[in-house]
Structures are given as C-alpha cells and as structure tokens.
Request: fold
Amino acid sequence: MPRKDLKRIELWLPVNHPIFKCPKGTWATTAKEWLDIGAELAEMKDILMEIKRMLESGSAFPVSQDKNDEKKEDSGFNPIAFAEKLQDFFG
Reply:
C-alpha cells in the first residue's frame, strides 16, 4: 500500500506494556495487528449487544402458528442468559 494511503499515529505506552515483550523491530506491526483485533472485537461487541436487545424484546423469535409448538418441551437453553455470558466474556 502506498504511503499516501496511510496515516501515522503516535502512541505513548507504559514501559511495562505487553507489546514491549515482542522483539524490537516488530512493535509497529504487532501494534497494528492488535489494533485490528481490537476493532474486530468492538464490532463483535456491538453485534452481541444488538442480539441481546433483540432477545430481550422478543423480536428475535418468530411467532409460530403451529399449536404443537406450545406442547414441545423446553430445551433448557436460555438465549438471554447466553447473550449475557457472551457480553461478560467480551466485555
């Protein structure tokens, strides 16, 4: 990628930051990789929050016309609790 398509960022990090455990000369590449991963995690968190909102509002569950659905046993899976666990895990 040509440099004209790039922007530079300067970071000040504590001397005990984990990036300094990486070999000198790889810090910029490692920092970019970690920033990319962080951006992906932030996007995943937003998606999880939307899923949680849908589950809590009930809009994630289609209304069934099948009367037999009411007779089926509960699977034991709690989608709201699952969404909350995912949110706790990803922050």
Notes: Residues 45-59+77-91 form one domain.
